[in-house]
Amino acid sequence: MRKLLAVTVLGVAAFLLHKWYNREVLLEGEGFVRLQSEHEHFHFHVDLPPGMEIQPGDTLEIMHLPPTEDGRTNGEICYRSPIRLYKASALRRFLTKKSSLIEINELVEHP
Amino acid sequence: MFWINPLMMEMPGEFSRTTRHALKEAILSPRFYTTDFKAIDRLEIDRNGLRDEFDWIRDEFAYDYNRTHFRRTDEFLQNFDDMPERDAFIDFLERSCTAEFSGCLLYAEMVKHLHDPTLKAIFKYMSRDEGRHAGFLNRTMADLNVALDLTVLQKRKKYTYFKPKFIFYSVYLSEKIGYSRYIHIYRHLERNPQYCIHPIFKWFEQWCNDEYRHGEFFALLMRSQPEMLEGVNRRWIRFFLLAVYATMYLNDARRSNFYAALGLDWRDYDQRVIRLCNDIATQVYPETMNLDDPRFFGYMDKLVEYDRKLRALEGRNDPIALAQSTRLKAAIALRLLAIYRLPTRKTTEAIRWKGLPGFPNYPGPNRPQRVIAAD
Questions:
Q1: Of A70, A103, A110, which has the smallest distance from its Cβ to B178's Cβ?
Q2: pTM, full prediction
Q3: I need a labelling partner for B305 at 20 to 30 A (CA). Which of A79, B85, B106, B359 fits?
Q4: Complex ipTM, two decimals?
Q5: Which residues on chain A are in Cβ contact (under 8 Å) with B149?
Q6: Start-to-end CA span in chain A (Å)
Q7: What is the C-alpha to C-alpha distance for residues B53 and B46, in angstroms, rounded to an integer?
């Protein structure tokens, strides 16, 4: 009986941690996107509206991308687009900060 | 100077895009970083009287040595349908473009968040350089009928976090090893033009000067914060040296055919690249890897051997394969630990990197005149 109780408690705790980890708060707004994908330059920047700030673990989604030919632009494209910022839970933020060394290859890879 | 292998050239007039190869789609997956921007903003770069040197390096970037360098010539319009290792070359372009683009994004983020006008300007110039490099690679991929899937930029992007000091250690090394890689390829093809499979390699000499200059800035930034180079941070330095060298060694071993097409033995090439980068790193790091210890490259070769065996198991899910895979991963981890624990080479004034010949170095606080340009 004790074992069953312990397993149940652990299961519930794991479920709650999982729910906490995946919990997100959605912020919506309008961002200003600058995209250039051609010979002269290749860049992509998004200015977020005031009050929106990206923190570790957050994810950003840009809702609009104008059509391009084979992924190339003709000069720089500047446009306003609705954006969604999914704010990570405190748990995910903490783990993202602590686990960065696991993703070290992202920083050290080079051509 | 070198030229294109005439065997690769198509009939006159048949230039522009390749036609025989189907349109390929490249998916660039640039890295999106966050860091403690406030901590970087709080760095007192005046603390050790280096403000003048920061201003000088900012002016170096403002001078924009490569403003007119990335202009294409008719050589790029040849048909490269039959070039050797075409797919490996496209893979090289993709990875290079991703790395340059990631650098562009990281530096642009710094510009957004920093307040010190000198640092802000420097990161802006470096973002300009990386974006320019990425654009040049982007266009070269277009020549080879490779489309870019830009929708990956639009989709949900996760932001990874790195401590500022980790970014400084690793990006410094990444810039310097990038320089070392490009200049070795350039010099090799200059001596052996028959292996120049694409004209883009002819642009590498001045291109890699940008990488070198970026590395100079990070060296200066770390010198302005001496605590980053002392105490427990020495272990982090060793960790990043090993991470950069081992990543490159394993990646290049997997792509040995591509280097063979350039007439390079990947192992010899990598060892020379690592030696140069390690020597350059003495300009700022108090210790570097002791590459004269035969165990260093002996262990690195073991890593390659384990990695080859590991890749041979890919696609198998049986228990024996899983057990072997676990054993090999553990062997790689232990071997990396063994390399990490090897005695390091302490930096002394006798071995400290003095700079590249002909490359601008800080002329001193009075700056009597502009130093001769790197290029």
A1: A110
A2: 0.86
A3: B85
A4: 0.78
A5: 71
A6: 59
A7: 10
Residue B228 makes CB contacts below 8 A (sequence gap 6+) with B165, B168, B169, B222
Nearest to A104 among B134, B177, B243 (CB): B243
Dump pLDDT digits (tens) for B296-331: 999 999 999 999 999 999 988 899 999 999 999 999
- Residue B20's pLDDT is 61
Residue B7: the pLDDT is: 31
Burial of B184-203, coded b for 16+ CB within 10 Å and e otherwise, reads bbbebbeeeeebbbbbbbbb
Label residue B29 by pLDDT band (50, 70, 90).
low
Surface of A (27-56) touching B: CB under 8 A: 35-45, 54-56
Pair of tokens at residue B340: 């990490």
Task: Return the bridge partners of A27, or none.
Answer: A85
Answer whether B141 touches A (CB < 8 Å).
no
Q: Which two tokens stand for residue B272?
A: 């020379």
- Name beta bridge partners: A69: A72
Task: Determine the pLDDT at residue B25.
Answer: 65
Checking if the pLDDT of B13 tops 50, the result is: no
Per-residue confidence (pLDDT) for residue B249, from 0 to 100: 95
Asked if residues A105 and B245 have their Cβ atoms less than 8 Å apart, the reply is no
Phi, psi torsion values for B146, nearest 5 degrees: -110, 120
Backbone angles phi, psi at B308, to 5 degrees: -60, -45
Cβ B343 vs Cβ B242: under 8 Å: no
Identify the pLDDT of residue A65: 85
Query: Contact at 8 Å (CB) between B209 and B118?
Result: no
State the Cα angle at B140 between A104 and B112, rounded to 5°.
50
Q: Which residues pair with A83 in a beta bridge?
A: A29, A62
Contacts with B181 (C-beta within 8 Å, 6 or more apart), sequence order: A110, A111, B208, B248, B273
